[in-house]
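Changelog note: in this version the structure field was regenerated for every chain. One regenerated record is shown below for reference.
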Amino acid sequence: MTIRFIRGDSQAPKGHAIFYARSATDSRTVLATYCVVPPMPLSLAKYLPSFLASQLSPEDLQEATNVPVMPIPPMLEEGNSLERLQMLAQIGTLTAIEDEAPIALDDLDADELLIQTMTDRQRLAELGKLVGVARYALEGRDEHQLQETRQRMRRVAQSLADKYRSTELTDAAFDPGERGARLAELYLERAYKLLDEEYSDIPGIERAIRELQ
């Protein structure tokens, strides 16, 4: 991928940017996302359910510990004209970056294709990381991030069998307070026990869930 700075200096970029690309099938269609580079190290690991660390690969754990850039929304989306993006960049003195490789509209649902290729363990790990993002957004009262994370969690949850109760997990992740955090952890732990066929541990987890409901 080649990028080109339309506004700003590639040698001294700002701490945030509007990233946009054109459709390969219609050059008038512009897709964009807003990228934030936190001024301080950001770790989502402390917002993850405590038991999840042992379930994540070293690469996934490192990814959750060191978040250098946060795209909002996480994938390029339609809805803005190039003129509006340029205006936003000028008003906010942002860097504007263009992807010189056009994106085919058929590739926009690559996220859905990625989810479908995941194993159940990978989907559960993804939900666990998104729980961390949701708790972080709740603490920061970031409504936009909450909306994007909820949408992503629902897409992942829909690809899992009902037995994992991923819908309840998603609802709990966005329930503010310790109760919601604990419920999300319990639902996720239950799902992993089910996946690993450790059935004898499930009744205790379900009992704990009922006590919190």
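Spot check on this record: The radius of gyration is 19 Å. The beta strands are 3-7, 16-23, 30-36, 70-77, 95-103.
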